[in-house]
Design goal:
The complex is a heterotrimer of chains A (about 325), B (about 350) and C (about 290).
Chain A (H helix, E strand, L loop, with lengths): L1 H28 L6 H6 L4 H11 L5 H14 L12 H36 L4 H15 L2 H15 L16 H35 L2 H8 L4 H23 L1 H14 L5 H10 L3 H29 L9
Helix pairs in contact in A: 1-13, 5-6, 5-8, 5-13, 6-8, 7-8, 7-11, 8-10, 8-11, 9-10, 10-13, 11-12, 12-13
Chain B lengths: L13 E12 L2 E13 L4 E5 L6 H8 L9 E11 L2 E4 L5 H7 L4 E4 L13 H13 L3 H14 L5 H5 L8 H13 L5 E5 L7 H18 L2 E6 L2 H7 L2 E6 L2 E7 H6 L4 H8 L52 E5 L2 E4 L3 H10 L1
Parallel strand pairs in B: 3-8, 3-9, 6-7, 7-8
Antiparallel strand pairs in B: 1-2, 1-4, 4-5, 9-10, 10-12, 11-12
Chain C lengths: L2 H4 L12 H8 L1 H23 L32 H37 L1 H16 L2 H11 L4 H10 L3 H15 L2 H8 L4 H9 L4 H24 L11 H8 L8 H28 L7
Helix pairs in contact in C: 2-13, 3-4, 3-13, 4-5, 4-7, 4-8, 4-11, 4-13, 5-8, 8-11, 9-10, 11-12, 11-13, 12-13
The chains are: A mainly alpha (about 325), B alpha/beta (about 350), C mainly alpha (about 290).
The structure holds adenosine-5'-triphosphate and magnesium ion (MG).
The site of adenosine-5'-triphosphate (ATP) has 13 residues of chain B, from strand 1, strand 2 and helix 1.
Chain lengths: ~325, ~350, ~290
């Protein structure tokens, strides 16, 4: 287990380094680079801009700049937002809670529904339920999240008036009920795609498992089908899902960005989009790096959890 | 295992009549097994032998209704199991009755010890689960019983092993766990589907000794499926030889080895100096020319006809021979067995 | 006799005579998807010529007409432009972006995947770690960050989306090439001294066609989605050029008064993407019979 952990940690660090190079390259190799915002703002002369570049160290050789940038990143100095002059990292953290709240809720919904739809689809393979679930999942995977959000707002907020049309709470009312009411719409919208993904993966994982010899052994013991499903099949079928949880993180974050935009949800995705609109590059680049790191950490945690959950990897062996 | 003393006239533990198994495949229905008839009494061991694909595993799975369900597979015939003074037909009984019997009165040990145990549960838990289901012991007591069973099947340090996961054990040890699992509720019938094929020779011998030992103590009826004629001679009271999905000869073990009548059995036994016969399908046995026919395209008449040295055209390819008694307890499915008997008498 | 004729012929997948086509046609959803896509392509190609309106011609008196109006079948938008006309023109852009991205990201993905899989070693490892790193970035974040740095146009959008979506194909190709490389016929060709390029083009890639085709189909679906996302967020195809995504951007503000403006383009996107996903599913079953039972 320790060896497995160290190996996995090493891999993640290597990836992290490549991610940093890519992030830096995006920032600098795009036409205009970090200076383009000033050019576009239009009220600066070339001389002003040269001076600015000098100050920001932008006229030094790229490797030197990269080294400086990386040192700063590692030291927690992610730059200062142009927009509100606050440290980027602090701004990101102040928006993280809302995003996590949304992602977590929708993941719980998606896992709960997706797992059961997948399991039943596998158990009742080729049944009407299975076909309908398959078609639903394929369509759900193809619906643009933002459009689904608009439809939900139109129908449930405007037509029926059941749900608020956006934001995290009614100003001045931070009660749990109020927050929950606001959370329902965006969480369901974000859960749609994940639910479809979970049901697909779960179905195929479950199909693998229920054809295994040990399921036949369980059956030969005379225990009930329900117990075979829950005690013997589900546990094994869920194991690979832990990895899926990590692998889906980039898509989940992307979905969160769009959902937050549609529902005016004050999370990291909204912040990202606002920062882009404001040409607030330090924040944009900060969030981009931050999400990549989040994905890396998420995958690392997923692998560790997998190691702990699967007795063949964790435990005393090895 | 064979005991000379006469057995009391209790009903047989298991009585199988006209068992037939059909798979619905893409290529159409495949009758994988048919005309299976046998019975087995307390303390008796029936060995089923036959080449790969002859339907041994399918037969054993069908007896406990462990084959895939209705649209994929159809089982007909009668499988009467005696338990607690009653007889239940395992082909037609309700799913609940079936579950109450599985693992309690009839259990099975599979061919593949490496994959037959659940990787995420400990050996002890998996045994205890069966005990709790059928005997209604509590968690603690069931685990104690599981540890006793692990001891019984000769696993050293059973208390520690009960807490081990399958991947921490060798193949032989896993098969012992499987046997412990099968014996957990003191069944009257044990089906062992090639329990030793996947193991190496010394372990094989140990497992077989173990089963003989347990049978001597508990009067268990055992159906022992194997490729290995040496093992048959060692463990069996009766032998059933299967070819292309149906039994072609059943006889007490001594009779079969001394006086095999069906040409297929004779071929098998001629290859015996090497004891194990060819395990892979499609590979001809050394003493028998040709290959096993596909269950999709069985020859007309006797399914062994095209490979048989005694083949008589007009007889053997006309209609399917029936399994008929030739001597006491010795049944043969062959049109020519009278002739064969006579020639044997001359020799 | 030349060396080439000595090399054992690699088994190829013949799309048009094989059981693969039959299996594909048996996949009902895939057939429906194919028909839908063909119809959509036909509509967006010839449809705009048949329409009496221009996608950009405004009409202040006919604003916000609801669908099923006598002259405007799908109604009009806040500027009185005909929704159906715009939908067809937008479809041209959106579908074209989808196909173009597929071609471009296939080119990148196949190149990177082949080089990494065929040569392996440090080069292969480095390339594949780069792929892993790229996949750490959430796609929409990556797309938006880059598109914020450049001036969006249809061409730059295509390049951008391709740059963010070639990695999956590279992975598929790398895995295929690595396993195919060890097979007998490539070893034989290698033993006969065939050159790398020849082995790759003649022996390896033709055998990796099945998973590449499937990945490419799903790539079109994802590209159409990606275009709609970034156009919706305002960093993709820029008005007045209509795309399905930016039609929705306009519509967001009129959810209350003219919900159809939001509903119609979304249905078009969903229909196109679902169809490609169905086709991909059907192709997977058709080209890889082992998967058929899944
Ligand atoms: N699920 C199934 N669908 C269709 N045919 C099957 C299925 N399972 C088994 N068969 C067929 O039933 C026949 C008997 O198979 P079985 O596994 O019983 O052979 P066996 O005698 O146990 O062989 P082995 O010695 O290799 O274990 C084979 O011809 C096989 O093709
Ligand atoms: Mg078998």
């Amino acid at each position: 287990m320790t060896r497995f952990l160290i190996g996995r940690l090493g891999q993640s660090l290597l990836l992290l380094w490549i991610v940093s190079v890519v992030g830096f390259a995006i920032l600098h190799l795009a036409p205009g680079g970090p200076m383009s915002q000033f050019a576009e703002s239009g009220n600066m002369t070339q001389a002003d801009m040269d001076r600015m570049a000098e100050q920001l160290g932008l006229n030094r050789p790229l490797p030197v700049q990269y080294a400086q940038w990386l040192t700063n990143i590692v030291a927690g100095d992610w730059g200062v937002s142009y927009r509100d002059q606050q440290p980027v990292l602090r701004i990101i953290f102040s928006h993280l809670g809302a995003t996590f709240e949304l992602m977590l809720t929708s993941t719980v919904i998606a896992i709960f529904i997706g797992v059961w739809v997948g399991v039943l689809g596998a158990v009742w393979r080729y049944s009407l339920f299975d076909s309908v679930a398959t078609i639903f999942a394929m369509v759900a995977l193809s619906i643009p999240t933002f459009w689904f959000g608009l439809v939900v707002i139109w129908y449930f907020s405007i037509e029926l008036g059941w749900l608020p049309a956006g934001s995290r709470m009614t100003p001045g009312d931070g009660s749990f009920a109020n927050r929950f009411h606001h959370l329902i719409g965006p969480a369901l919208v974000l859960a749609l795609v994940s639910t479809a993904i979970w049901s697909r993966y779960m179905r195929s994982s479950m199909l693998d498992v229920i054809n295994q010899d040990y399921i036949r052994t369980a059956r030969s013991k005379g225990i009930s089908e329900w117990r075979i499903l829950t005690r013997h099949a589900l546990r094994n079928a869920l194991l690979p899902m832990i990895t899926i949880l990590g692998l889906q993180l980039p898509n989940l974050l992307s979905g969160a960005l769009v959902t937050e935009t549609v529902f005016s949800w004050p999370g990291m995705g909204r912040l990202f989009l606002d920062s882009i609109n404001y040409r607030d590059y330090p924040t944009v680049m900060g969030i981009l790096m931050f999400t990549a790191i989040l994905v890396l950490i998420g995958n690392l945690i997923a692998d560790i959890l997998y190691g702990l959950a699967d007795p063949r990897i964790g435990g005393r062996a090895r | 295992m064979s005991t000379a003393e006469p057995k009391p006239a209790a009903p047989p533990v298991l009585q199988v009549s006209d068992l037939e198994i059909t798979f619905n495949t893409r290529a159409g229905p495949v009758r994988a097994v048919r005309d299976v008839n046998f019975q087995i009494a307390k303390g008796e061991t029936l060995a089923i032998v036959g080449e790969s694909g002859s339907g041994k595993s399918v037969t054993s799975l069908a007896m406990l209704r462990l084959l895939p369900g209705a649209p994929f597979c159809k089982v007909s015939g009668q499988v009467l199991l005696s338990h607690e003074g009653r007889q239940t037909d395992l082909v037609t009984c309700s799913a609940d009755d079936m579950r109450a019997i599985r693992g309690r009165h009839a259990s099975i040990v599979f061919q593949e010890p490496m994959t037959s145990l659940n990787p995420v549960h400990t050996a002890g838990t998996q045994i205890a689960e069966s005990i709790r289901r059928h005997i209604g012991l509590g968690q603690r007591a069931a685990m104690e019983r599981a540890i006793e069973l692990l001891d019984l099947v000769g696993i050293p340090d059973p208390r520690r092993r009960a807490a081990s996961f399958p991947h921490e054990m060798s193949g032989g040890m896993r098969q012992r766990v499987m046997i412990a699992l099968a014996l957990a509720c003191d069944p009257s019938l044990l089906i062992a589907d090639e329990p030793t094929t996947a193991l190496d020779v010394t372990i094989q011998a140990q497992i077989i000794e173990l089963m003989k030992d347990i049978q001597a103590r508990t009067d268990l009826a055992i159906i022992f499926i194997t490729h290995n004629l040496g093992v048959v001679a060692d463990v069996a009271d009766k032998v059933m030889v299967m070819y292309a999905g149906s039994p072609v000869e059943t006889a007490p073990v001594a009779d079969l080895f001394e006086r095999p009548l069906m040409p297929y059995t004779r071929g098998l036994l001629q290859s015996v100096p090497r004891i194990t016969f060819s395990a892979s399908r499609g590979q001809p046995l050394p003493a028998i020319r040709g290959t096993v026919p596909s269950p999709l395209a069985l020859p007309q008449g006797c399914s062994f006809g095209p490979r048989c040295d005694w083949f008589l055209s007009g007889t053997c390819d006309a209609d399917t021979p029936l399994l008929q008694p030739v001597q006491r307890g010795h049944d043969v499915r062959c049109h020519r067995c009278e002739t064969i008997l006579k020639e044997l008498a001359i020799q | 006799m030349s060396n080439a004729t000595l090399a054992p012929a690699a088994p190829r997948i013949r799309l048009f005579q094989s059981p693969a086509l039959r299996r594909f046609l048996r996949h009902r959803l895939a057939v429906i998807g194919t028909i839908t896509i063909l119809t959509m392509v036909l509509l967006v190609v010839i449809g705009p010529w048949l329409m009496p309106f221009e996608p950009t011609s405004t009409n202040i008196r006919n604003r916000f007409l609801p669908p099923f109006d006598s002259t405007h079948l799908l109604g009009t938008d806040p500027l009185g432009r005909d929704t159906l006309t715009r939908l067809l023109h937008a479809g041209r852009i959106s579908l074209a972006v989808g196909f173009a991205v597929m071609i471009l990201s296939m080119a990148i993905g196949i190149f990177v995947g082949t080089v990494a899989g065929f040569y392996g070693g440090a080069l292969g490892a480095a390339l594949m770690r780069f792929v892993d790193a790229m996949l750490c970035f959430p796609p929409i974040f990556l797309l938006l960050a880059i598109s914020a740095l450049i001036n969006p146009s249809v061409i730059s959008i295509i390049i951008l989306i391709s740059a963010a979506s070639w990695m999956e194909i590279a992975r598929v190709v790398e895995a295929q090439v690595r396993s195919l490389k060890e097979r007998d016929y490539t070893v034989a060709a290698e033993a006969l001294g065939a050159r790398d390029r020849r082995i790759i083009l003649r022996e390896i890639l033709p055998n990796a066609v099945a998973p590449i085709v499937v990945a490419a189909t799903l790539n079109v679906a994802n590209a159409i989605l990606a275009e709609s996302y970034i156009s919706f967020l305002g960093f993709g195809v820029q008005p007045p050029t209509p795309s399905w995504g930016n039609m929705l951007q306009d519509a967001q503000g009129y959810l209350r008064s003219a919900p159809w403006l939001a509903i119609i383009p979304g249905i078009a996107i969903t229909l196109a993407v679902t169809s490609f996903n169905f086709i991909g599913d059907g192709l997977r079953d058709a080209l890889d019979p082992r998967m058929e039972n899944r």
